[in-house]
Design a protein that fits this description.
The complex is a heterodimer. Chain A is α/β, with parallel strands linked by helices. Chain A has nine helices and eleven strands. In chain A, the strands form two sheets. In chain A, strands 7-8-9-3-10-11 form a six-stranded mixed β-sheet, sandwiched between helices. Chain A has a five-stranded antiparallel β-sheet with strand order 2-1-4-5-6. In chain A, helix 5 (125-137) crosses helix 6. Chain A is globular and about 50 Å long. In chain A, 48% of the residues are buried. Chain B is 77% helix and 0% strand. Chain B has helices at 5-8, 21-42, 52-55, 57-67, 75-106, 114-129, 132-143, 147-171, 175-183, 188-223, 230-239, 243-271. In chain B, helix 6 crosses helix 8 (147-171), helix 10 packs parallel to helix 11 and helix 11 packs antiparallel against helix 12 (243-271). Chain B is built from twelve helices and no strands. Chain B is mostly helical. Classes of the chains: A alpha/beta, B mainly alpha. The interface between A and B is large, with 47 and 29 residues. Bound molecules: adenosine-5'-triphosphate and magnesium ion (MG). Adenosine-5'-triphosphate sits between chains A (13, 16, 18, 36, 38-44, 91) and B (1-5).
């Protein structure tokens, strides 16, 4: 069964064509990396899939788990219900700054629990426990009561991931979830995403700037350039030439010692610190 | 989402930045327009009467002399009426704030569609642009003389003000946390409660406290047309030439309002 099906999706912001006739299918249980230079449209694509943005004119549609979430630039009536099944880690984390981290994480429950309870902000003891466990899982159990605004960038990113873990969605879209993490936290987060994908069979789409990580954790990679899909296939087939094409010629630091392809046990992989770093 | 793409794309196209002349020209035009408006209003506002301030100084001195001997013998009564004025302002402000929460959200362009925003805004404009005194006169006729008419007058006018201030705060929020709440499948009300309200609450509280201060002042004036409180007593004593008593009342009002200003300022600092 297809988890995400995008047909003919185009989006323009003024004259800028951020997405250009994008079509893709992602099956249930896949773990897909989304790569591309800055401004290539990764975030825009993710925002369309989760129904936060709507396509520009044209016959486009996006289906989530067989249900239309938007069609030809209009959200469907089911969009709100479908959103609950799609967890999103935003590039800028999007936490509610004035509230505690725990509240932010608990909000992941809103789509699942009865509306009246969510509206009153009554979360059960189990839900609170699950929220704290999620925080522990991403490695920041100690900040539960801190205001979200007081967290460091990396902590915010992980709190946002904890929120999607609590959501227990069928699909997880993560927009550069490791962009502001140190190498060991980055690996930890990627491990969590991989585990969620493996054990709970949650379909994951992860946008990344570190091609290294894409190769190591995601069997499939989709590459965007100027809003168009220019590569869609096994991550192992990504070549250095393709990367130069994607990121431009002045990206030598990117070139990988054409090497370990999926699957490689993370333990044995080259130290992450030496991975190409660019954001 | 990010706007870094232009600078960070592989081969950045040279971007020309044009100097912005329109801005400084606009400023000059604004100053000239202000000067023209002032000149135009000079005659109708009888600004040419300004020397009267000095030629009629004898009257002023007389006033000053009587007012400088305040008579506090009835202070209990004045204080009691002052409290009534505070109570009028309290209820008027509270009701307005409560009603302005939904109305403020409904008249924010980023929260509601235009066919809701526009009608709500027009009604709120009408409430805001009509002075409390006018409402007070209407309510005195409708519900009779006394404090309740004052409460209703403040309530209606202040709702108009709050709806505008509250909605401006809502329009200035960061949309991203709201989107995050939306992405969990939350309902619209939940989006507002958890995404919007936490962001605007400090401003809303600050506006409310600030407006409470000015509503206390407004409530004293409302007393003049019979809407209860110390204003009513004050007006009656001035009309009866009881200047020393009026002076005592003015002092009580001054002290109360100053204390209130101070307290609410401290409280607002707490919330912001
Ligand atoms: N709301 C918007 N208004 C105007 N332009 C936008 C908007 N959102 C995105 N864009 C533009 O669309 C293009 C794609 O942006 P997008 O955020 O999807 O890139 P990205 O691949 O996520 O980049 P990055 O790696 O830097 O996050 C960019 O040129 C961007 O400026
Ligand atoms: Mg992005």
């Amino acid at each position: 069964m297809t988890a995400i099906s995008v047909r003919n999706l185009s989006k323009s912001f003024g004259k800028k064509r951020a997405l250009d006739e994008v079509s893709l299918d992602i099956k249930r249980g896949e773990m897909v990396a989304l790569i591309g230079a800055s401004g290539s449209g990764k975030s825009t694509l993710i925002r369309h899939i989760c129904g936060l943005d709507t396509a520009s004119a044209g016959h486009s549609n996006i289906e989530i788990l067989g249900k239309l979430i938007q069609e030809s630039g209009k959200l469907t009536a089911e969009a709100r219900a479908i959103r609950g099944r799609v967890g999103v880690v935003f590039q800028q984390f999007n936490l509610v700054n004035r509230l505690s981290v725990l509240s932010n994480v608990l909000f992941g429950n809103l789509g699942r629990i009865p509306a009246w309870r969510g509206t009153l902000g009554w979360f059960s003891a189990e839900e609170k426990k699950a929220a704290r466990e999620a925080l522990a899982r991403v490695g920041i159990p100690e900040v539960a009561w801190q205001r979200a605004s007081t967290l460091s960038g990396g902590q915010q990113q992980r709190a946002a991931i904890a929120r999607t873990l609590v959501q227990r969605s069928d699909i997880l879209l993560a927009d550069e979830p490791i962009a502001s993490l140190d190498p060991s936290s980055a690996r930890r987060v990627m491990e969590i995403l991989a585990a969620v994908n493996r054990d709970q069979e949650i379909t994951c789409v992860v946008s990344l700037h570190q091609v290294e990580y894409a190769r190591r954790y995601c069997p499939r990679t989709i590459a965007l350039r100027d809003g168009r899909v220019v590569f869609d296939g096994p991550s192992s087939q990504l070549t250095n030439r393709m990367l130069v094409e994607l990121y431009g010629s002045n990206s030598e630091e990117l070139i990988l010692p054409d090497a370990p392809t999926y699957p490689v046990k993370p333990k044995r992989a080259a130290p992450v610190g030496s991975a190409p770093a660019f954001a | 989402m990010t706007d870094t793409s232009n600078t960070a794309s592989p081969r950045p196209a040279p971007v020309e930045i044009e100097p912005n002349w329109t801005r400084s020209r606009g400023t000059t035009i604004c100053w000239i327009a202000l000067a023209v408006l002032l000149a135009w209003s000079w005659g109708p506002a009888e600004m040419s009467n300004w020397p009267h301030l000095f030629t009629d100084s004898g009257n002023m001195a007389q006033y000053a002399k009587e007012f400088s001997h305040p008579d506090f013998s009835d202070w209990r009564y004045y204080a009691q009426e002052m409290v009534v004025t505070l109570q009028i302002a309290l209820w008027g402000t509270f009701l307005a704030a409560a009603l302005a929460v939904p109305l403020g959200v409904l008249s924010a362009r980023n929260m509601a569609p235009w066919y809701v925003v526009q009608p709500v805004r027009r009604v709120m404009d009408a409430c805001r642009s009509t002075h409390e005194l006018v409402f007070a006169v209407l309510f005195v006729v409708a519900v009779g003389l006394g404090p309740f008419a004052g409460v209703m007058a403040l309530f209606v006018h202040t709702t108009g003000i709050f709806a505008k201030l509250f909605s401006e705060a809502v329009e200035a929020i960061d949309a991203r946390p709201v989107e995050a709440i939306r992405s969990t499948g939350a309902s619209r009300i939940q989006e507002v409660l958890f995404g919007v309200v936490p962001q605007v609450m400090p401003l809303w509280i600050s506006f409310t406290l600030y407006r409470f201060e000015s509503n206390v002042r407004a409530a004293t004036v409302l007393g003049v047309i019979g809407a209860g409180g110390i204003g009513q007593v004050l007006f009656e004593s001035i009309r009866g030439f009881y200047y020393p008593q009026a002076s005592a009342m003015l002092i009580i009002m001054l002290v109360t309002v100053s204390v209130l200003d101070f307290v609410s300022q401290q409280m607002r600092k707490l919330f912001l």
